[in-house]
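lol forgot to send this yesterday, sorry. struct tokens for the thing we talked abt
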């Protein structure tokens, strides 16, 4: 059984910074038996980040069935995420807020939660410069934490694909998405993510380790990666400029 205190010690030892902004992708099961479950993981990270920090998690709701002909309907208070129990637990907390994107929302708690999430309401594509993924990539104290998952779960690589103008990542045409805010339905015209072809984001890991952008360790039973978000995005943009197909599975 791993305790909340032990989790905090492990995350701090890996380099999770006090006062930082951290986007966590996670598998609760990977940690082993956690006393307090998902809430303990969230509280352990908030304790390390401190009152000046911000914890984010992806609360994605999109699917490959969506299209301009079958647009999404999104209620930030009630639409569940498919990204795991830790993001679901975080988004339901009274202190949490959730961005208003109909397919690629994020939830956050902390000092800069509102600032990091606000721009997503005007994003045309899921992970553009106004999204939390884009906002985090501009902050030198922005990090991505992968707990028991690999870069296959790293949504910020979709930000790289969008900023890099890669031709395979967005469906053509606009979808009239419905976003429900305070019980009122609003229509937003957005472009949707394309779920094929298959990605291979793990191809970037050797570069990130070599350049000191990623630190790797273990917390509980989980392999954990702490990635500097701006550094990762800069490195990945250089890579796709040299080879636009590098992030695709061969």
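and heres what i got for the seq, position by position
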């Amino acid at each position: 059984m791993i305790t909340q205190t032990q989790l905090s010690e492990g995350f701090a030892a890996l380099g999770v910074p006090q006062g930082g902004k951290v986007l966590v992708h996670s598998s609760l099961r990977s940690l082993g038996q956690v006393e307090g479950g998902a809430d303990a993981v969230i509280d352990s990270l908030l304790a390390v980040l401190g009152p000046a920090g911000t914890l984010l998690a992806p609360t994605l709701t999109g699917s490959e069935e969506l299209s301009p002909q079958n647009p999404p309907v999104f209620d930030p208070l009630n639409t569940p995420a498919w990204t795991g129990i830790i993001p679901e637990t975080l988004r339901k907390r009274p202190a949490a807020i959730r961005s208003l994107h109909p397919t690629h929302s994020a939830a956050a708690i902390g000092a800069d939660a509102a600032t990091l999430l606000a721009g997503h309401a005007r994003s045309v594509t899921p992970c553009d410069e106004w999204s939390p993924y884009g906002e985090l990539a501009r902050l030198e104290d922005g990090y991505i934490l992968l707990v028991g998952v690999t870069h296959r779960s790293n949504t910020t690589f979709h930000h790289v694909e969008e900023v890099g103008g890669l031709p395979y990542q967005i469906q053509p045409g606009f979808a009239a998405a419905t976003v429900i805010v305070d019980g009122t339905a609003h229509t937003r015209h957005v472009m949707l993510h394309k779920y094929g072809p298959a990605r291979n984001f793990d191809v970037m890991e050797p570069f990130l380790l070599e350049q000191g952008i990623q630190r790797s360790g273990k917390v509980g039973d989980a392999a954990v990666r702490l990635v500097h978000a701006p550094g990762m995005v800069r490195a990945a943009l250089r890579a796709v400029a040299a080879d636009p197909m590098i992030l695709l599975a061969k």
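The chain has a mean pLDDT of 97. anyway ping me if u want another try
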